[in-house]
What we know:
Order of helices and strands: EEEEEEEHEHHHEHEHHHHEHHHEHHHEEH
Low-confidence stretches: 1-18
Strand order of the largest sheet: 3-4-6-8-7-9-10-11-12-13-14
Strand content: 15-25%
Amino acid sequence: MDGECENGGGLGPAGIADRPEDAPVARCALGALRGRHRRGVQLFAGIPYAAPPVGERRFRAPEPHESWEGERDASRFGPAAPQLPGEGLTSSVPIPWDEDCLTLNIVTPACDDALRPVYIWIHGGAYKHGQGSTPWYDGTSFATRGDIVVVTINYRLGALGFCDLGSHLGGDFATCGINGTLDQAAALAWVHENVSAFGGDPDRITIGGESAGAFSVCNMLAMPATDGLFHRAIAESGAAHHTFDPEEGATIAAEFLHQLGDPSAGELMAMDVAVLLEAQEQVATDRSNLTGRSQEPFYPVWGHEALPRDPRELIADGSGGNVALLTGTNEDEMALWGVTSMSASGLDSVLAKVTDDPAGMEATYRRRLDGVDPGWLACAIGTDQVFRIPAVRLADARHGTGADTWMYRFSWDSRAFDGQFGAAHALEIPFAFNTIQRPGVDVFLGPGDTPTALAETIHDAWIAFIRDGDPSTAALGEWPTYDPLRRAVMDLDDECGLMDDPEADERRLWSDLVT
């Protein structure tokens, strides 16, 4: 997924080129942009929404980009943020990257005055991998089927975007723990200011994301600075819980600096970015070996004025309460990272980490999953811990403030990998974007008929929510908002339908447990 770039590479030295006669042109606040026609829509790619975060701007908050003369070439995607290949199924392929990465891409039916709804997508990848140009995120079907303008963005990742250096190097680095989040907010502000030039309505913007992208969506809900920049939100497999407090952020920053030899501020600014990437990877490895925690160390650190408190607290106090939210999780999220290698002792280890009553928890889950291998039991428990229960808690908190929230569960079982993939993390993305026919998606779907009907059903629900603020459709029927009494969840499978409080006994186990 995150490993393949549809059309990598950056702009030419000047970013300016002669325009073919039929190329679409749009004028944003900084100057004219020349895009290209593609699959019946117009594509504008590699658009800078902030100044390159290089040189003296490394580890700084995003700054405005300079204007340009003439027509800037926006026909090619910009490079991804600096990143190392991962080990998972979706991030193992090297991709072109550069520190000069703060760009966005726009797919639009036309650059006119139609004032269409807008969908801004924030990619996932554990805040260390990914890019906006991944083919799974192609907005063509949203544009042609839903008459929606789609924007995908890049933002700084890893230590370059999320390392709280200010706690060690002083005020010049005060924003370092949240720079990647500030990049996302800058992209939202750019779209709000300029999207009308691309046929979009700045007063009908929906933000969406999956995994770390969904964490980011929830941070945007919590942040005072983004109020009014968007009006609806979609959070797929991610809630408001993956951040660090200032104390933990300072500890991680100290470990990162130690890996680099405790450099001065000047030495750090001059270091080769590859050295920084290797150091951040070593910090992640060392922390995992020491604590057994799977959470990556370079996540947003709250305590900055843009995110002054834990986003869960801010949302519970009403932040983002005027924004409708569509959120949910996949039935077998943790299967993305493998279930076949998990033994009984591995399951015991998982249980010991999450509860003081491992036997009781195992018995509860076995009432539904009796006879399954230990790996699938661990998958169910891990899925609840990391994804489903935080999403439920988010929906509960929002209901307490009067905010509208709709919940789903994606349950379609992949046929790939001998049935060991299930409804894994990220599998819903090509269904939501209606990109299941794109190259490489078949690897994750497995053999058999392509689930076109389900993809269109899910895609149409996302279109309905982006356009009208309600995911109900003719195919799905009435989809009620979430409340803690009924806990209605739309099950998205070959046969879709509402469930009331699914797996309630398992949910109750987590009432007093930390996720």
